[in-house]
Amino acid sequence: MQMIQAEVERLNASAKLLDVTPEQKAQSDRKAWQGWLARYGARLHRQAQAGADPHKRVQIMNATNPRCDIKHLCVADNGLDACTPCFALAPRNRFSIPAIVSSRLNKERSAFAYSG
Fold it and tell me: Model pTM?
């Protein structure tokens, strides 16, 4: 029963996204990023105050984090059509990765379209 309730809540949250305008989404994203950056900056400040070596932190991050996101690499190398399997489980709304990438690719294609 909990799984069904969780799925209903997820679907309700997803339905709310469809009513969000691009401007509202951009404003919400900007606010979320600003909050994250403030928390991250505060954490780095606390670590520096405690004597943490910033070079060691960067070394650990570079050793741990991937150099690239495989989905973005797939799109860059092969185009969106070749990457459909990468996006098979992505949510399907206008803010999903496939929708955003497709929209950007279409804009780029139309910018270079021959109009003569």
Answer: 0.46
